[in-house]
Amino acid sequence: MKYTVQKGDTLAKVAYLFKVRPFDLLLFNPHIYSEQSYLYPGLDLHVPSINRDLPLIGDDVHTNLEFGQTDIENKIPELRNKGIHVEIIGYSVMNQPLYAFKIGEGKKEIFYSGGWHANEWHTSKFLVQYIEQLAEHKQNKTLWNGYDIDKILNDITLYIVPLVNPDGVDLVLQGIYPSHPYYEDVLAINKGMKRFEHWSSNIRGVDLNHQWPAGWEIEAVESPQEPWSRHYSGKAPLTEPEAMAVYTFTNKHSFSHVLAFHSQGQVIYWGYRGMEPLESKEMVERLSLLLHIRPFIQLKVMEGIRIGLSKKRVGLDSLWRLGLEQIHYPLKHLPRFGPTTVCLHLKD
Question: How many other C-beta atoms lie within 10 A of the C-beta of residue 181?
């Protein structure tokens, strides 16, 4: 049968959809060179009909499938049915909605976010699965790793923005193609290269994690001076709509904990010039020990959105330093965050 590639598709996801192997698709589509080839929207594929005695697809395969904006939007009706509130907090450069999910009814507000870097889509998938499991335990009034989720969510309200950089994630998953509105710009930034595994910026080549008005000038001097696949801070703080959306959203609330999830390295960045509350150190030490990751690093300089625990408002420029934790962890270990984050950040 013929299948036309849709936005967000990858070879692995199409193979999973039709219960065939990626290799089977390669055999029947000579214009696809390898399992790492990008599938552009509108591309026609021939999908073979293969009858097998044993199923090819297991939970482990599904766990490792790529995840992006389309997957989030497909999930929204199911999440709403499980009692999760969904709102749009802003739009990306390419006018894609930035979704925030909310669960819980408590006065204490907590904020998680992921998908800041385009090649870290794993964090978006983890956060969506995480809030979905929270909702299921709340609805069923069941314990999760010994924790009474229903009781915890009566005391706190958890907000999650799973994907801050949808345009960048789409680029990493599907590559660039002539009908893409930023085709020429992206190729120029990437020096003509058409592979994007290394790309962490948004679609305009700005690193969203370098956009905060907390020592932006210092970081900008040490970063690339033009749009680049990573680390370019932009022409000024908060020039990018994705960063501004999260910044505005945060300032509409009074979050007690704010965590930004990443998937490269095994470290927790926290602290800001010794101004963080005393309880931050204890919090990060406990998290580090429970996750068995390398010792946390207390930053002495400003390097984008980094860590700590905030108990009070300290002004917009300092908020990002005193109220944000940035956790870096490999994909294969992300499920371990489930009970740990409940323990340290929902219950405390």
Answer: 12
Q: Which of the two residues, 275 and 232, has the higher pLDDT score?
A: 232
Give the distance, in angstroms, between the CA of residue 111 and the centroid of all CA atoms in the same chain.
13
Cα distances (Å, whole numbers) of residue 312 to 202, 253, 257, 309, 346:
31, 11, 10, 9, 17
Pick the closest to residue 341 from 74, 112, 143 (CA basis): 112
Q: Which tokens sit at 222? A: 């040490």
Contact 212, 243 (CB under 8 A): yes
Average pLDDT of span 151-165: 96
Alpha-carbon distances, residue 51 vs 28, 35, 61, 276 (angstroms):
15, 21, 19, 60
pLDDT tens, residue by residue, 325-342:
455 544 433 333 333 333
Q: What is the DSSP letter of 64?
A: T
Q: How many residues can be counted in the chain?
A: 348
pLDDT > 70: what percent of the chain?
A: 80
Q: Three-state DSSP class for 148?
A: strand
Query: H helices then E strands: how many in the chain?
Result: 13, 12
pLDDT classification of 318: cutoffs 50, 70, 90:
very low
Contact (Cβ atoms closer than 8 angstroms) between residue 293 and residue 268: yes
pLDDT at 334: 39
Measure CA 181 to chain center.
23
What is the pTM (predicted TM-score) of this model?
A: 0.85
Residue type, position 72, single letter:
I
* Contact yes or no for 123/261 (Cβ under 8 A): yes
Contact 293, 329 (CB under 8 A): yes
Which residue ranges form the domains of the chain, and what is each CATH number? 2-58 (3.10.350.10), 69-167+239-346 (3.40.630.10)
Q: Determine the average pLDDT of the residues in 303-331.
A: 37
Q: Is the pLDDT of residue 82 over 90?
A: yes
Distance CA 39, CA 170 (A): 11
Residue 225's CB is within 10 A of a number of other CB atoms, namely 9
Q: Say which DSSP state 343 is in.
A: I
